[in-house]
Specification:
heterodimer, A: mainly alpha, Arc Repressor Mutant, subunit A, 4 helices, B: mainly alpha, Rna Polymerase Sigma Factor, Chain: A, about 70% helix, elongated
Chain lengths: ~80, ~210
């Protein structure tokens, strides 16, 4: 692919951040970041935003009553 | 018919390992505790019924999520018949970052991205996520909270990878717009506490 401009980078940024871009694209993107501070900052912002979303939305605990009911499902034939 | 003790133990181990994360996803999908519990019961009942066909060593988490999503889609299709929402914006749309950069007020206070992230940290992110319309919300939950790969999500939802990507990107776009509104509200509360010199304050005339 070679040099990427900002527009091409944005099209691929989610795939890159999701760990879904192939090695060649990753390397082009990192080269672009080294030369383009705004794009590098944008990517860093998205990464941190996802961490905040995870921190705020994870960690639910199922009620104990539900857990017990589920374990008793095995009293039925499978 | 007698259930082998070994099957019971393996199933109970599965429940214990995956219940909390499935329950968390069920809450964000159904948006209330009673429905989430129903969905989880339905999921594990189906999982138990097909447990014998489940091969040990295959991806148990993805298998359980597939059952969960099928049960969820069945039930929400019955209750809501909304057509898929269509929007026509670009995929490369990073709304919150742009908003932080544009904000005069955040610039005045220092590092705009840092300020926005801390406001989101104070905001009700769960409520914002729950406002993201389906089918985009499910894609965001599976990718951003549960960290399944595009391929796994394609299998879980039984859709092509291209559809996974478009739902996910659109879901994120919805979420970023919602988070902006929620973050502004969180900022408003902060502003009140610090004496009104804040997000809601009118611009000073020159």
């Amino acid at each position: 692919m070679g040099d990427v401009d900002c527009r091409q980078l944005l099209e691929r940024l989610w795939a890159y951040l999701d760990g879904e871009a192939d090695e060649e694209i990753c390397s082009d993107i990192r080269t672009h970041f080294a030369a383009c501070l705004p794009c590098a900052q944008r990517a860093e912002f998205e990464r941190r935003l996802r961490e905040v979303i995870q921190m705020k939305c994870r960690g639910e605990r199922a009620p104990q009553s539900l857990r017990l009911e589920l374990v008793h499902l095995t009293d039925r034939p499978s | 018919m007698l259930v082998p003790q070994e099957d019971r133990e393996r199933f109970e181990a599965l429940v214990n390992e995956h219940l909390d994360s499935l329950y968390g996803s069920a809450l964000r999908l159904t948006r209330n505790r009673a429905n989430a519990e129903d969905l989880i019961q339905d999921t594990f009942l189906k999982a138990w019924r097909s447990f014998r066909t489940f091969q040990a060593g295959t991806n148990a988490r993805a298998w359980l999520y597939k059952i969960l999503m099928n049960a969820y889609i069945d039930s929400y299709r019955k209750t809501s018949r909304q057509p898929e929402l269509v929007d026509h914006e670009d995929v490369g749309d990073f709304y919150l970052y742009a908003k932080a950069q544009e904000s005069e007020e955040y610039r005045r206070e220092g590092d705009p991205e840092e300020i926005l992230l801390s406001k989101i940290m104070d905001a009700d992110v769960k409520a914002a996520l729950e406002q993201v319309p389906e089918p985009f919300r499910a894609a965001v939950i599976l990718a951003d909270l549960e960290e399944f790969s595009y391929r796994e999500i394609a299998e879980i939802l039984d859709i092509p990878i291209g559809t996974v990507m478009s739902r996910l990107y659109r879901g994120r776009r919805h979420l970023q717009r919602l988070l902006w509104d929620y973050a502004k509200r969180a900022g408003y509360v902060d502003g009140d506490k610090s004496g009104g010199q804040a997000a809601s304050a009118p611009p000073k005339s020159a």
